[in-house]
Specification:
Blueprint (H helix, E strand, L loop, with lengths): L13 H4 L2 H16 L4 H17 L4 H25 L3 H6 L4 E5 L2 E4 H27 L2 H10 L4 H30 L11 H7 L1 H24 L18 H23 L10
Antiparallel strand pairs: 1-2
Length: 276
């Protein structure tokens, strides 16, 4: 976390020089392009390119490691849930069935396992660009750039506060967890099994929600006392004009979207299963 109280990491890289609104559009176009497909190869390509962009932005892996672990755990749990609820869905997509095991008349197929892996890769494909946006975009500059393209300054300021609040939630989560550990609640793998640890995380959720609501009320009262929202327009201390790198990024985004749509319509139309 930077000294600004956000997840923004100040580095001298081409990614940092891109305007915040352009990076936000990149995030939207990237996500839309990923969700057009149901193809593991495409998702792997997006993931590799995204990790390459993180490397260009000079974002150290230790900064994104906690979020990366969270995303990986989420995708694993989501895949397991998918396999349990719809063990034959992959066979429906491919039209073939390669059974692995059968329990009480329900067959788990290789096709469903592959579909679960493909879905997990889809989430991972979005992860790098999300990290790129969070760690290379200064909240104040992003808010001003949103207002510059026509977004209400109230909405832009709300997004600014939300981005600044992410580290606070993380720190509050750690404080509550340490307090619960002092009371004997187990969160470490050497103290309890994974099922017990997952249940114990419920003891963090309720205090975290109450703390978040309290922070929202404090910020809201402070903004009301300062007359925020009274004027229809406002000026910004942090603002910048679009540069050549912004226009180049917009052109590349347009090309990416056009190529993605073309591939979806004419080449990669359905679910890719390599073992047919």
């Amino acid at each position: 976390m930077s000294r600004t109280g956000t997840l923004y990491i100040d580095k001298n890289s081409p990614i940092h020089k891109i305007d915040g609104s352009v990076k936000f559009l990149l995030l939207l176009v990237w996500t839309a392009s990923v969700f057009l497909f149901n193809d593991f190869r495409v998702f792997l390509t997006f993931f590799i390119v995204g990790m390459g962009l993180l490397h260009i932005a000079k974002i150290p892996f230790k900064s994104i490691k906690p979020l990366f672990i969270f995303i990986v755990m989420f995708t694993i749990m989501n895949s397991l849930f998918l396999i349990v609820i719809t063990p034959e869905y992959g066979s429906t997509l491919t039209g073939t069935t390669t059974p692995i095991l059968t329990i009480k008349g329900v067959t788990l197929s290789t096709e469903t396992i592959w579909f679960a892996l493909t879905l997990s890769m889809k989430y991972l494909a979005i992860f790098p660009i999300m990290m790129l946006f969070i760690f290379t975009t200064h909240p104040s500059k992003f808010a001003s750039s949103l207002n510059k393209i026509g977004v209400s300054y109230k909405v832009a300021y709300a997004i600014n506060i939300a981005l600044r609040y992410i580290p606070d939630v993380r720190d509050e989560f750690k404080n509550i967890m340490h307090a619960q550990e002092a009371r004997g609640v187990a969160f470490r793998k050497e103290d309890a099994n994974i099922i017990t640890r997952l249940k114990n995380y419920n003891t963090i959720l309720f205090p975290l929600v109450l703390s978040s609501l309290n922070r929202v009320e404090v910020v809201s009262n402070a903004m009301d006392l300062r007359g925020f929202g009274h004027k229809s327009k406002r000026t910004w201390y942090s603002s910048q004009k679009y540069s050549s790198i912004d226009f180049i990024t917009l052109i590349l985004m347009g090309l990416m979207l056009v190529v993605s749509i073309y591939l979806k319509i004419y080449v990669l139309k359905g679910f890719w299963y390599p073992f047919n």
